[in-house]
Every structure is written in structure tokens, then in C-alpha cells.
Amino acid sequence: MIVIADTGPIHYLILIGEIEVLPALYQWVLVPPSVCEELKRPRTPEAVRTWISHPPAWLETRSPSKSPDAELAQLDAGERDAARADGFDLQPVSAFRDFDRQLFLWNAKYSGERPLLDPAGRALDPAGLSAAERVAAILVWSALPGASRHHW
User: Fold this and answer.
1) Dist. CA 8–CA 55, nearest whole Å
2) Helix pair 99-111, 131-141: axis angle to 10 deg
3) Neighbours of 145 (CB within 10 A)
């Protein structure tokens, strides 16, 4: 499987020491040059700038060749270029979610209706976990409903 990433996920996975989750989940990761440039900005943490200066083999930089769609105008350059990458039917998997949607996703993970993953991205069986273990497992990848830091 291939993923096209913008700056945010790469930036924060490096900072928390979990960047290797990407090659564990995907065959390779595509990024447009604008994402690499964002990761190199002077105000970016040194660990991130150091990492992108020697990118791993599973990270491929690819320039988009399509012109931007009008709907993409509100995105920053990295997001826009990632969305324009050639040959992929992109579907957002993470975006703003109101409280009700966050609660729905949280409950679906807790009940086992949606995948519950460990820190390496491997599926867990919620039936084999205590209530506290389920909550801890969900918190690896998802904030509590209403507690996302995106808007703090």
C-alpha cells in the first residue's frame, strides 16, 4: 500500500520517535517537494530537519503534474501538492470532526466495529482487553471526543 503524506504526520511522528510506523503500515510514502521544504524550515524542530536531510529509502519525493483543483485552494502548499499527486484517487481519512463524529468513532473502536490498533499499527481484539486496556489502546491513535489538540 502507498500513502501520500503532508507535513503534519511526518513532523509529529518524528518528534514522538514513531516515524517507523509509516514503513510498517505502507510499502512506501510519497511526498511532494513542498512537504520536504516545510520540514526543512528554520523554525521546524532540529530533529525533523535532520531526519528530512537524510530521508529513508521508503520515502519518495514526487512533484505533482496536475493543476490544482479549485476545492484545494484552501489547503497549504504541502497538502495541496500531496492531493495533486499523479495516479491516485485521494480520499481524506483525517479532517475536522465535530464532537458527534468523534464520539461515534470512539465508540466504534471501543465496541470492535472499527479496527483497534496497537502502536505498531497491528490489529487488536477488543474482546480480549479490559475496559481500561481498550481505552488505553484507543488513546494511542485517537483523542477523547472533544479533546483533540488541532484547535488549541
Assistant:
1) 16
2) 130
3) 17
Q: What is the pTM of this model?
A: 0.49
Residues 6 or more apart from 144 whose CB is under 8 A from it?
A: 106
Contact 85, 30 (CB under 8 A): yes
DSSP the chain: -EEE--HHHHHHHHHTT-TTHHHHH-SEEEE-HHHHHHHH-TTS-HHHHHHHHS--TTEEE----SPPPGGGTTS-HHHHHHHT-TT-----SS----HHHHHHHHHHHHHTSS--B-TTS-B--GGGS-HHHHHHHHHHH-PPTT--GGG-
Please check whether residue 138 is in contact with residue 113, taking contact to mean a CB–CB distance below 8 angstroms: no
CA angle at 7 for the pair 106 and 56, rounded to the nearest 5°: 105
pLDDT (tens digit per residue) in 87-113? 444 455 556 667 787 888 888 998 989
